[in-house]
Amino acid sequence: MDKLIEILGSAREITDQVIGTDLLVTVKTGIINTAKAINETSNEQLRTDLKLKLHEHIEQHERIFSYMMEHGYYFPKTPQQQIHVLNETAETVLTLNKD
Question: For the segment 56-69, what is each residue's pLDDT rounded down to a tens digit?
């Protein structure tokens, strides 16, 4: 148990980054799926409700995206830096899973 607490305690920032990345991917998937559902429905009330949900997903994406940028977890303007961060994140997650 002490080993687990040590690992989790030292990995707080990377854990926030992993959680943020997972949320961002999940919201992006929600945007895509909701847009597809809007295109496939013929029920006007459902289409209206789905459009509201789509806007909610887009707002969530904006909030998560801003959080990731502010905390140095996401670098959309510098792909090389973003690739470096993603590689470091992947290595850290793999290391945590070994123990």
Answer: 999 999 999 999 99
Structure tokens at 74: 């996401």
Q: How many CB atoms lie within 10 A of CB 92?
A: 16
**C-beta neighbour count of 83 within 10 angstroms:** 11
Do residues 29 and 36 make contact, with C-beta atoms less than 8 angstroms apart? no
pTM, to two decimals: 0.69
Give dist(CA 57, CA 13) in Å, integer. 25
Give exposure, 54-77, as e/b (b: 16+ Cβ within 10 Å).
beebeebbeebbeebeeeebbbee
Q: Which residue range is the domain that position 88 belongs to?
A: 3-96
Tokens (6 digits) for 89:
């994140």
Distance CA 30, CA 24 (A): 10
